[in-house]
Amino acid sequence: MLRWIAGVGTLFLVTIFLAGCGSDSGFSEEEFRSEEGTVQFVNMMPDSPQVRMFHGLSQDDIAFPFTSPIEVRFVDRYDWEIAYVNTEGDRVIVAEGENQQISANTLSTFLFMGSTAQPNIQVFDTPEVPSADRVEGQADVWFASNSTLHDMVDIYLIDADANIADEVPLVTITSGNFTQLNTVPSGTSRRLWVTVAGTDQVIFDSGAFEVVDQRQELFAVVDDFGPDASNHVDVIRSLAASRSIMQDFSQAPTVRIGNFSTFDRIDVQVGETAFSSIPEDSLTAYKEAAAGTAAVSVEVDGNVSESADVSLFRGRFHSIVSFDDPTIAGGTSSIIVLDEQRPITARATFKFINGTDQTIDVYGLRDGQDTDDVPPLVQDVGFAGTNVIEVFTDNLRFLVTPADSAEAIASLDQNMMPGENYTLILDSESQLRIQAD
After folding, report:
1. What Cα–Cα distance (Å) separates residue 376 from each residue in 371, 380, 391?
2. What pLDDT is recorded for position 423?
3. pLDDT score for 32
4. Is residue 356 part of a domain?
5. Which residues sit opposite 311 in a β-bridge?
6. Are residues 375 and 270 in the same domain?
7. What is residue 1's predicted lDDT score, i.e. its pLDDT?
8. Worst-scoring range by mean pLDDT, 3-7, 66-70, 324-328, 360-364?
9. Are 42 and 74 in contact (CB under 8 A)?
10. How far is CA 26 from CA 56, 59, 122, in A?
11. Are residues 226 and 295 in the same domain?
């Protein structure tokens, strides 16, 4: 049996921000009766922790590389502020502004570009075209870039079957900037390519996707943190269901294997990629694998202890971690999770994998804290893994308890270093282990 932990996100520590930002109430009594505009916030800063956007009296938590939902605002001028809380509990203001105009029937998109230390916040206003005035078979798209490794890129939006060598870029854009609206054909078989400007070096390929008819959409180029990050970028799509990045078909996935069973060694086959003689209590290095559905087979002493199919995503890191299967003698049971290799300002990250059949909570306790002082970082998790979780950079005591009790199952102390990523594992014998990724 192999469990798949779908998707990836960031769970933020519960923190308290001071309400409001500035004296502006957010709307005037006269204007709010009839006229409205909309706003959306896009976090493109590669080092960003989850930040809080204060816009008038509204607040949104936005992680990289995500967008907020589109939200309605009454026509008025708004004060705004982007902030996060550091390890000492102080509120750190990344950027702020005053009197930002929300206009009637207009979408104001805030682009969080630059970095947390040197922010470059830009706002692009796009008119909301009435449905009756939209042209069938067309869409309006625009682009932004905050790539730190590729100062200038060419962007193509062409038919999925077209040869990019026969096409010309739709736009060329310099990092830290955005384009105007471009009218393009809509349809279900379009393809977005990004190349280093003036070259044929492909650094992003969306594969075939649908450009939605009669819609306006942003495609935002940001840093990639996949297996071949220096040669790639990611692209945030504002209309994506996840409100995050598109899959990059120009980059293969990678996989590593963990043996946290009680077996001395295991052999694992992932599609055509083999991992031999993996010692107990260890994680292998990453290996490249084929994208899509892959057959996974685990062997103990030459006998198949487990087999299943998994999905491997292009441009992503994956961990497949094997534990004892308590229901089958000599059997294993594995969990697959997505890993992250992104350094974050003022944060460390970890993900947790529970290799036991108990439903548990996990606390991250700082000096002087106990379980009555803070909520668990992970709650009610059975045999499964979590998404990536941001924590303060500090000495933490990770404490694992049953979900319905404060009695400790296991604990360990770890100095969570700034910008580092960790994997916390409760193994088949309820031993707690942590590995720096």
Report:
1. 8, 9, 12
2. 96
3. 43
4. yes
5. 293
6. no
7. 54
8. 3-7
9. no
10. 5, 12, 20
11. no
Give the length of the chain: 437
**Which of 127, 148, 174 corresponds to the end of one domain?**
127
Q: Alpha-carbon distance 169 to 218, whole Å?
A: 17
**CB of 418 closer than 8 Å to CB of 346:** yes
117 and 138 both lie in a single domain: no
67-95 burial, b at 16+ Cβ within 10 Å, e below that, comes to bbeeeebbbbebbbbbbbbeeeeeeeebb
What amino acid is encoded at 157 in this protein? L
As a whole number, mean pLDDT of residues 363-392 equals: 94
Tell me what the mean pLDDT of segment 151-162 comes to.
97
Provide the domain limits for residue 307. 258-338
* Torsion of Cα atoms, 415 then 417 then 421 then 422, to 10°: -10
For residue 6, which amino acid is it? A
Tell me the two tokens of residue 7.
Answer: 């998707």
Span 227-243, pLDDT tens digits:
999 999 999 999 888 88
Into how many domains does the chain fold? Answer: 4
For the record, the structure tokens of 245 come out as 């990045």
Residue 361 falls inside a structural domain: yes
The pair of structure tokens assigned to 47 is 């080092």
SS3 of 133, please? helix
pLDDT tens by residue, 173-217 = 999 999 999 999 999 999 999 999 999 999 999 999 999 999 999
At position 113, the amino acid (one-letter code) is M
The one-letter code for the residue type at 87 is T
Domain final residue pick, 127, 157, 188: 127
Judgement on whether residues 405 and 426 belong to the same structural domain of the protein: yes
Tokens representing 120? 């470059």
The type of residue at 427 is D
CATH of the domain at 394: 2.60.40
Distances (CA, A) of 309 to 3, 269, 295, 318, 335: 10, 11, 4, 14, 12
